[in-house]
Amino acid sequence: MTVTHPDIRLVVLDMAGTTVADGGLVERAFAAAADAMGVSAGSAEHAEHLAHVRATMGESKISVFRHLFGTEERARQANSAFEAAYGDLVASGLAAPVPGARESIEALLGGGRTVVLTTGFARVTQDALLDALGWRDLVPLTLCPADVGGRGRPYPDLVLESLVRTRGADDVRQVAVVGDTAYDVLSGVRAGAGLVAGVRTGAHGDAEFRAAGATEVLDSVADLPALLGELG
């Protein structure tokens, strides 16, 4: 593959759908949360809510529930039910890496780049995923919306905080942002990242990525090391 981005020094990767195979876990956990809130599967309200969840994949989950349920109390109740359900699914062994994801991360780290893993989940869920995969010590930094004052994607905060905390690049144009949703892409665009890639292993596809401003679309995060090439 032709090397087009050899100057990238910091790589900010999404988790579920990008480096972690989702397998429908988000929607299953949402169904449990909706049930806890009295929204029955098969109802028009449930279908409307699910459509919103799918459209906003990548966004902070508490923000999604604020939109769906209105009050802060109900949003937090729904979010707690979602996090508990997702945690149970992960604990039951249903979390798995996207094929080649760990190898790609190790290749990037081995080439001298800094890698950060980010998510729209709460810290407790992110940690459960990291533990289930044995990734707790894989990268130097992991971030969730609570780590940046609560603003997750599509805001640029997670990307910019990755740069500030790691000092892994001298310029935002040396940052790559990779994710499976339009919100991942938009967060990278808003942060001024030099490479913003959508991957076809999760929630959204080429049309959504391009509309959000992606500079690249990849089949998988496994293709990223070859795209970046070796450091000069």
Automatic annotation (TrEMBL):
Pfam families: Hydrolase. InterPro entries: HAD-like_hydrolase_sf, HAD-like_sf, HAD_sf. One of its GO terms (molecular function) is catalytic activity. This is HAD hydrolase-like protein. It comes from Streptomyces doudnae. The lineage of its organism: Bacteria, Bacillati, Actinomycetota, Actinomycetes, Kitasatosporales.
